Amino acid sequence: MIGEWLVPLLATGGFVGLLELANYYSPWLILFGGLAVAWPILCSGFFLRLHRRSVLATHHFSLPFLSLIISAFLIFIFIDRPLLRQIIIIVAGILVYLDFFYLSLLARGSAKYPPRALERIGSVLLALSAFFIFSALFGWVTFLANTFWPTMVLALLISWLLDFEALFLNHRETAKVAFVSLIISVLIVEFFWVISLWPLGFLIKGWILTIIMLNGLGIASDYMDKRFHPKKTLIRGIFSAVLIVLIMVLARWI
């Protein structure tokens, strides 16, 4: 069926093209950025209508896709360098295409579909979305926020949603996943409050908080899989700490 390959190409092409327009015509950023978000959503709705199968009806893939395209637009609001925007467009465009591509393989029941491919690409989408959203929130605190607590509440809700989805992709125990996600999100908000006080750029802060969140998700996932090991956790924590210190050393301090 022509829609099996045409819709992914149209969705990605429209998304990338509209973000390019938002990049080069900054006064029209909200308009083109909003259209860039709406276009792939419309394409995904059309795609699902073409493939009304139980395998798609029960598959959990929507939130990683939506979080990426929305967060890519939000970070555009705070980045004024065309080169950085171009990098975001390229990376986000590739991931949108891969998401549609694997979804197409799954919908066709293709033997070429790698096991749990959508779960893996969904994890990448969520990680990148976390970086974009956290950076946008730090940008909001730095440039626009008059009061801090609404941003804290928003960070808590967004963090819980991303944590829940990331764990739910691999662990289907809804109540347990929700509780563990709440613990992680509370810790993330505490770190958000501390990091927001550091004299660093909002992108660097976003990277640091994302690393902390991924570290927490890794520990939680090991615990839920009953694969928790203190030595592995210690190594992961040391690696994350070294990476954060390296980022801070190389970063430009305000």
Note down, in words, how this protein is organized.
The model has no long low-confidence stretch (mean pLDDT 83). This protein starts with a helix and ends with a helix. The protein has 10 helices and no strands. The radius of gyration is 19 Å and the shape is globular. The protein is 81% helix and 0% strand. Helix 7 runs antiparallel to helix 8.
Brief account:
This protein is an all-alpha fold and 254 residues long. It contains 10 helices and no strands.
Which outline best applies? Answer: globular
Share of helical residues? over 70%
How many separate helices? 10
> Which structural category fits the helices and strands?
mainly alpha
Q: How many DSSP E strands?
A: 0
How many angstroms separate the termini?
55 Å
- Mean pLDDT, to the nearest integer, reads 83
Identify low-pLDDT runs: none
Topology as a string of helices (H) and strands (E): HHHHHHHHHH
- What percent strand? under 5%
C-alpha Rg, in Å?
19 Å
Largest sheet, in brief, is: none
Which helices and strands appear, and what pairs or packs with what?
Elements: H1 3-24, H2 29-50, H3 54-57, H4 62-78, H5 82-108, H6 117-143, H7 149-168, H8 174-195, H9 202-224, H10 230-250
Helix pairs in contact: 1-2, 1-5, 2-4, 4-5, 4-6, 5-6, 6-7, 6-9, 7-8, 8-9, 9-10
